[in-house]
Amino acid sequence: MSTQIIRGSFLDFVEDPFHKSDSDSVRYLPDGLLVIEDGKITAFGAYETLQEKYADSEIINYSDKLITPGLIDLHVHYPQTEMIAAYGEQLLQWLEKYTFPTEAKFKDPEYARTIAAFFLDELLRNGTTTAVVLTTIFPQSVEVLFEEARDRRMRLIAGQVLMTRNAPDFLINDAQTAYAQTREQIQKWHGLDRLLYAITPRFAITSTPKELTLAGKLKAEFPDVYVHTHLAENVQEVQFTAELFPESKDYLNVYEQFDLVSDRSIFAHCIQLDDSAFQRLSDAGAAIAFCPTSNLFLGSGLFKLDQAKSTNYPIKVGLATDVGGGTSFSQLKTMSDAYKIMQLQGKSLSVFQAFYLATLGAAKALSLEDKIGSFEVGKEADFVVLDLQATPLMKLRNPHAKSENLAELAEKAFAMMILGDERTVQATYVAGKLAYENSIG
Ligand code: GUN
Ligand code: ZN
Fold first, then answer.
1. Which listed CATH number (3.40.50.170, 3.10.180.10, 3.10.105.10, 3.20.20.140) goes with 71-329?
2. Which residues line ligand 1 (CB under 6 A)?
3. What is the tens place of the pLDDT at every residue in 384-415?
4. pTM for this prediction
């Protein structure tokens, strides 16, 4: 059995900081000890309390660093890694001009593997240990991603993108063929090691009713598989969807009509939704992926996070980069933009709320809170070591790295979240093993 012991300052959550006070929701151990055996957490607590038991053991000491659970990216496109930061368009034109031609390249499995490997390493460089990932219409693009994620022992949720209309010929699949391919992939990958499968219609516009019927059939055949798609991101998209599905009372209702809305559904964006749709998402227990950098970059709009997190009809929300619509793999940069999106609505977002959205909140959105998202004993030991003084400016802003209490941490960690990026990530651990170390820091 391999045992590892990590010492440092630890931050995680025991409750939702949107609904409880910081002192009731945040767990901060200024000097803590995390004990890992065979990739799982076997003990966690104050150094003072636990030290005696482990007095003779070797301890990895990150004394002036902040350790959080591994970050979770609730929605990201791996084939779009290379076309991040494409100029000048909003969603539908951006898809036509940049995205679809790039995704066509993933027909070639060797090419797809090169990008999949780059993508996963980029996640790890940014402290992201779990991601919900879109691929392309090509089964080989899914296979190589799962293979590479398995090699890295990462928790990954992915699926073949379903597209049958309103896209160039080179990116159209036959609905029945896609159904058979998806079915085969579910049987091969869902639940293998740390991998899970998501049925992934791209969005309503690129699916025929037949394809959505088959997606619903798959979901009924494999109820614990996820459904992952886009919903109500952009005004033009919503209008076109209404023309394509005149029978549906709104965009969400398209997915409802095909039995694709459940507590295992993840909907990216959800900007252009009314109160009724928010309530129905809450009732279904479905999750929203909030994609701040993408929503700003593509000019899609301001997500109503305060409404989604309301206590009247709360919705599970997780933070997502949405690369290549999003402009960074860093969940710290994503948190920073999330804060600005709330400021533009006259609201705020605390650093604890932001970290919750990328850790325990996202784990709950995935119904994986028994496995990841916090340092609770029994969970998988994915975590990230953050350096609050990673750059000269951060060091000037935070001259003392260590926080003695929650109030101090709130201030220092907020500055880190606003100024931080991948340079802030000192090390990333996956299932207890060092998966990335920043050699500059
Ligand atoms: N809606 C449908 N496809 C996409 C995509 O690739 N990116 C984003 N941001 N929205 C989409
Ligand atoms: Zn997306």
1. 3.20.20.140
2. 77, 91, 95, 99, 202-203, 230, 233, 294, 322, 325
3. 999 999 999 999 999 999 999 999 999 999 99
4. 0.98
